[in-house]
């Protein structure tokens, strides 16, 4: 029993550590791509590491007091790491025994809610506007995540993510899961805070929104959390909706998954770079339409497609 | 020169005579296109009403002049343009020192709001019945009762600094909260303070405090500098349309003094003005993209723009602030060997601009952010006296190049395009259209630049007491310079009105009932000014050795830095 616990614990740590270490690299690649489309040379792909390094070494300034406010950045990053342990990233999720799809949905929403809270607590009008935008985005995007995952759960007749992945591997592509995957991808664009949905941050309008008052190590943790979140969610997308081909050779599968994740992130970056920012009402209207379309996936699942 | 219809001149005279009801002091025609009337101040408002209602005159600016050393009184001059009739109408009223009041015309012309507050602040003539008599021009800690543009006020006066002063700002309506934009804000390149009153994300009103950057340029012009020094100061009014201001000033003095710039100079001015429009519109397109988060547009348009800056540098020695203009013509000729390169660059810029235009015209997200956003109605555009692309995008077909031709525009006339929608998208379309039209204009002007001198010889001193009004269509709209000549080799009064001045006054109406997200792009779509410097000179403090880095070196250094290796 203890050995099993130890093993799970170590695997959790490994998942979290890998996500932490690799996410700035992914961000760096995305930035480089962005620069290429801009006709710029761009920063080296290791730049996000240096950004974090620099921010972490700065003075810790807070615009509000209290233990809760002080600990919000750590909790935000923590929630993302918890998510990393809950989802399969190339292998079975180390914490899969602790919760199913429902828990994943809750944990995935947590970081957004914590960012929203820090905004409301910052005592800045820009942060408040940003937080209310964040809230509206969460309310528009979360149902899409839920519908997409429910399609999988319905098909595989299980709420466990691992079960859905196994079912997918065994049964091959289906229309319903493809639609669900596309809907999930669109939601990912918003959850990663990328254009045209970076409405909550909107530098040019509200100067970074919820994070306007964050600086130094606090900002570093929030940034790191955002980068990790986009990586982890990309893994979730690839594993649940596009797990094929599974060759059975562990290292090779892991490599394939990583390549697919990178492709997803490149797509996210390209969409980011060729779009202007939508207004919050336009984005909500857009996601409402996406949510209704993703219901089609559920319908297909019901008729077995 | 465009012909002036004598019937219109007679009609203007009739209207002024009828409305002034015997209070007309004098009627003169300083120039073929300028009518000047002196009217007793009691009748000024009635005459203004007549001009606006009966002749659809467009208010340009007010000029307050301290004439005490000459005539013993002050004067307020309202400047109007009859655009389609190619006429300027100047209404002047003497204001005696013992009764420094004049009737406000802001109720008739909402666009006169700032102009009247400005002469109140600058020379102390109070516009009676002004709806919003708060301070505009002067800093909030400037002492009361001190008027900087009076003749007895020294240009280098430094008022004592005062603690704890605040701008007089309006409170939000009940139930609304305040979102401040400024005085420093990411998308505002210059300090300006917009106080947005919002309910949720919806704007229910706004208040402004600007003039943080007031530099006392007009004061320097009529107290320290001479006629031929002012073009360099005028060029520094704006970091982007510098050549426009120096041309406009020179033309005003030339007109007042009866000097005619040689044709070659007028052609080269046209070419430089249009090059300035090309690089300014490309810059604007990039900034507009940046404001709505479309960085790719910013990066690409600025890349397209850069060769135009290099061309300007090749012609004048500077990317910006060319220092080419002087009263009577130019100091620097357009070298003939730049012509092929100019044409080559223009072809490249044209090709890439069309590519950008095609890319943005079909972008649905861009439409979502700009169509119906920040609409300026045709009616309000006229009332607030908007100029340039914002006016043309709202269906007001005015363009100084056609209405009051200057430089070589009488021989190389532009085709102007108007849009009816008045929204941000319409302003984008108008500017992109103008950009391509400017490329055509430069080509046409280049093909017909005549040979000859570039500067008129000025043999006599410029006589005092002459008036000259000049307009130039800047990328942002019409710039106006008014010069009243003085006796000591400098203007007695020099008045500058930049195009952003009337256009910014239109903003509150444009953002009202919109959302916070729309404010930056609406403001940006008016194209308020900004400047940039990209050259570097270093001085070694130990040896005092000056080293100038070339463009290529700077680029290399910054790239090396960015890659994380090496030092300077």
User: Regions of chain A with pLDDT < 50 over 5+ consecutive residues?
Assistant: none
Largest interface: A-B, 33 and 36 residues
Question: Under CATH, the topology of the largest domain in chain B is which?
Answer: Cytochrome-c3 Hydrogenase, chain B
Give start-end ranges of low-pLDDT stretches of chain B. Answer: 530-538
Give the oligomeric state of the chains in this entry, treating copies of one chain as homo and distinct chains as hetero.
heterodimer
Structure description:
The complex is a heterodimer of chains A (305) and B (568). Chain A is mainly α and 305 residues long. Chain A has one domain (2-302). Helices cover 73% and strands 0% of the residues of chain A. Chain A has helices spanning 2-37, 47-56, 67-86, 101-121, 125-156, 161-171, 175-191, 203-206, 216-241, 250-273, 280-302. The longest helix of chain A is centred in the first third of the chain and has 36 residues, at 2-37. The N and C termini of chain A lie far apart (42 Å). In chain B, 40% of the residues lie in helices and 18% in strands. Chain B has 3 domains: 6-154, NADH:ubiquinone oxidoreductase Nqo5 subunit (Beta Polymerase, domain 2), CATH 3.30.460; 217-524, Orthogonal Bundle (Cytochrome-c3 Hydrogenase, chain B), CATH 1.10.645.10; 535-568. In chain B, strand 16 (537-539) and strand 17 form a beta hairpin. With 568 residues, chain B is α+β, with helices and mostly antiparallel strands. The N and C termini of chain B lie far apart (56 Å). Chain B contains 19 helices and 17 strands. Chain A binds chain B through residues 34, 37-41, 43-44, 50, 125-126, 129, 132, 195-196, 198-199, 202-207, 273-282, and chain B through 177-180, 185-187, 200-201, 289-297, 299-300, 303, 363, 365-366, 368-369, 515-520, 559, 562-564.
């Amino acid at each position: 029993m203890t050995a099993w616990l130890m093993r799970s614990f170590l695997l959790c740590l490994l998942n979290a550590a890998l996500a932490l270490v690799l996410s700035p690299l992914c961000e760096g690649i995305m930035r480089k791509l962005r620069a290429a489309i801009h006709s710029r040379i761009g920063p080296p792909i290791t730049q996000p590491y240096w950004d974090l390094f620099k921010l972490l070494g700065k003075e810790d300034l807070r615009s509000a007091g209290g233990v809760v406010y002080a600990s919000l950045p750590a909790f935000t990053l923590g929630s993302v790491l918890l998510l990393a342990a809950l989802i399969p990233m190339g292998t079975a999720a180390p914490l899969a025994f602790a919760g199913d799809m429902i828990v994943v949905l809750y944990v995935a929403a947590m970081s957004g809610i914590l960012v929203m809270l820090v905004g409301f607590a910052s005592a800045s009008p820009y942060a408040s506007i940003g937080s209310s935008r964040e809230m509206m985005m969460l309310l528009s995007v979360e149902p899409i995540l839920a519908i997409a995952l429910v399609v999988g759960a319905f098909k595989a007749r299980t709420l466990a993510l691992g079960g859905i992945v196994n079912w997918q591997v065994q049964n091959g592509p289906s229309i319903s899961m493809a639609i669900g995957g596309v809907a999930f991808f669109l939601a990912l664009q918003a959850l990663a805070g990328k254009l045209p949905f970076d409405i909550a941050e909107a530098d040019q309008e509200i100067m970074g929104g919820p994070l306007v008052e964050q600086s130094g190590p606090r900002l570093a943790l929030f940034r790191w959390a955002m980068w990790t979140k986009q990586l982890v969610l990309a893994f979730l997308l690839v594993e649940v909706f596009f797990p094929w081909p599974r060759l059975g050779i562990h290292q090779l599968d892991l490599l394939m998954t990583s390549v697919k994740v990178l492709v997803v992130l490149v797509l996210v970056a390209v969409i980011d770079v060729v779009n202007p920012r939508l207004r919050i009402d336009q984005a909500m209207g857009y996601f409402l339409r996406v949510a209704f379309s993703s219901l089609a996936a559920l319908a297909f699942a019901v008729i077995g497609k | 020169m465009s012909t002036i219809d004598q019937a219109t001149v007679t009609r203007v005279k009739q209207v002024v005579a009828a409305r002034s009801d015997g209070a007309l002091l004098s009627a003169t025609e300083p120039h073929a296109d300028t009518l000047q009337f002196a009217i007793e101040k009691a009748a000024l408002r009635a005459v203004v009403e007549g001009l606006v209602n009966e002749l659809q005159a467009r208010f340009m600016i007010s000029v307050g002049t301290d004439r005490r050393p000459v005539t013993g009184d002050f004067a307020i001059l309202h400047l109007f343009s009859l655009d389609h009739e190619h006429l300027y109408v100047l209404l002047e009223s003497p204001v005696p020192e013992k009764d420094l009041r004049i009737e406000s015309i802001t109720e008739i012309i909402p666009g006169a709001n700032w102009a009247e507050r400005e002469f109140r602040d600058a020379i102390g003539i109070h516009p009676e019945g002004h709806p919003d008599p708060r301070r505009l021009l002067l800093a909030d800690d400037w002492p009361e009762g001190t008027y900087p543009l009076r003749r007895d006020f020294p240009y280098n006066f430094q008022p004592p600094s005062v603690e704890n002063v605040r701008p007089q700002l309006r409170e939000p309506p009940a139930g609304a909260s305040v979102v401040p934009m400024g005085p420093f804000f990411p998308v505002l390149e210059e300090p300006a303070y917009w106080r947005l009153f919002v309910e949720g994300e919806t704007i229910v009103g706004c208040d402004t405090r600007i003039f943080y950057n007031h530099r006392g340029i007009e004061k320097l012009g009529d107290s320290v500098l001479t006629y031929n020094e002012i073009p360099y100061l005028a060029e520094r009014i704006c970091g982007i349309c510098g050549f426009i201001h120096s041309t406009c000033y020179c033309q005003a003095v030339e007109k007042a003094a009866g000097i005619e710039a040689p044709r070659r100079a007028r052609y080269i001015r046209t070419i430089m003005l249009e090059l300035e429009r090309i690089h300014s519109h490309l810059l604007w397109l990039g900034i507009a993209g940046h404001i709505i988060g479309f960085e790719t547009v910013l990066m690409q348009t600025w890349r397209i723009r850069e060769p135009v800056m290099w061309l300007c540098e090749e012609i004048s020695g500077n990317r910006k602030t060319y220092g080419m203009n002087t009263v009577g013509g130019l100091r620097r000729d357009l070298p003939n060997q730049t012509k092929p390169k100019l044409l080559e660059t223009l072809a490249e810029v044209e090709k890439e601009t069309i590519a950008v235009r095609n890319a943005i015209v079909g972008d649905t997200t861009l439409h979502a952010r700009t169509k119906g956003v920040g609409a300026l109605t045709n009616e309000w555009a006229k009332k607030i006296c908007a100029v340039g692309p914002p006016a043309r995008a709202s269906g007001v077909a005015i363009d100084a190049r056609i209405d009051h031709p200057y430089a070589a525009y009488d021989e190389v006339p532009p085709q102007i395009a108007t849009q009816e929608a008045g929204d941000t998208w319409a302003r984008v379309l108008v500017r992109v259209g103008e950009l391509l039209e400017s490329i055509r204009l430069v080509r046409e002007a280049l093909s017909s630049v005549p040979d000859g001198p570039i500067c008129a010889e000025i043999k006599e001193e410029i006589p005092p007491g002459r008036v000259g009004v000049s307009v130039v269509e800047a990328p942002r709209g019409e710039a106006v310079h008014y010069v009243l000549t003085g006796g000591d080799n400098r203007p007695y009064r020099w008045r500058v009105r930049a195009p952003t001045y009337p256009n910014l006054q239109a903003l509150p109406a444009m953002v009202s009932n919109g959302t916070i997200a729309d404010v930056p792009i609406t403001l940006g779509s008016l194209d308020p000014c900004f400047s940039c410097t990209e050259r570097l000179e270093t001085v070694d403090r130990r040896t005092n050795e000056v080293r100038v880095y070339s463009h290529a070196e700077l680029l290399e250094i910054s790239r090396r830095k960015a890659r994380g290796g090496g030092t300077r």
